[in-house]
Amino acid sequence: MIELSQVNKSYRLPHGGRQDVLINTNIKFPSGTNVGILGLNGAGKSTLIRIIGGSERPDSGTVLRWARVSWPIGFAGGFNGSLTGRENLRFTCRIYGASIKEVKNFVEDFTELGPYMDMPVRTYSSGMRSKLAFGLSMAIGFDFYLIDEAWSVGDASFQAKAEAVFKERKAKSTLIVVSHNVATIRQNCDQAMVLHNGLISKYNKLDDALSVYAGICQARK
Predict the structure, then answer these.
(1) Got the DSSP string for the chain?
(2) pTM for this model (two decimals)
(3) Which residues are paired to 220 by β-bridges?
(4) Which CA distances in Å does 97 have to 74, 102, 136?
């Protein structure tokens, strides 16, 4: 399970003042229930997913994790650009206590990066970085997978392969999906929450959350 207690987060605005993104947020994500988080562009969905994953700290409050939690799928910002893909792989394995040999074999076969595995990550295209990040997350395996909007990378052939392995992981893991796309939430989630004006509301019935979100979208037009 993952639990956020009294979490607050705000950002300084360019012309003074602050924008609240999360206000006294109290939410729980139990294992076995795939949860979607809906919100308009700029509502703070990506900030929330980074806080859940631990790559960004809240201004106040606590985040408790009783599970192995992935980085946002496709997110490659945690790589050291001066290290090669293989060196980043080894470093990540040591952090998560994963078998370097098993992860290496999976990532090399899955990502199709070939000789680029021995080149500095700073020489990678954004798509290559995303392939490495996605391959690593699938190789290591997590109890919770964090999905931030669209994560598919590469050509149609690679996307099909990625979808197949992701389907296998979904059968054993729990998803937290942030998106403004209703179809994405319907496809992957059992329940949903709505993030709006810094406040998050949870709905046990998916259709209830989608109805509330539709009303927010309509009001903005």
Answers:
(1) -EEEEEEEEEEE-TTSSEEEEEEEEEEEE-TT--EEEE--TTSSHHHHHHHHHTSS--SEEEEEESS-BPPPTT--TTS-TTSBHHHHHHHHHHHHT--HHHHHHHHHHHH--GGGGGSBGGGS-HHHHHHHHHHHHHHH--SEEEEES----S-HHHHHHHHHHHHHHHTTSEEEEEES-HHHHHHH-SEEEEEETTEEEEESSHHHHHHHHHHHHHHH-
(2) 0.84
(3) none
(4) 21, 12, 13
Residue type, 60: S
Q: How many residues does the chain have?
A: 221
Task: Please state the φ and ψ torsions of residue 128, each to the nearest 5 degrees.
Answer: -70, -40
pLDDT in tens, 91-115: 999 988 999 999 999 999 999 899 9
Contact of 75 with 137, CB cutoff 8 Å: no
The predicted-structure confidence for 163-191, as pLDDT tens digits, reads as follows 788 788 888 899 998 888 888 888 889 99
Helix axes 126-140, 156-170, angle to 10 degrees: 30
pLDDT at position 148 is 78
CB-CB contact of 38 with 215 (8 Å): no
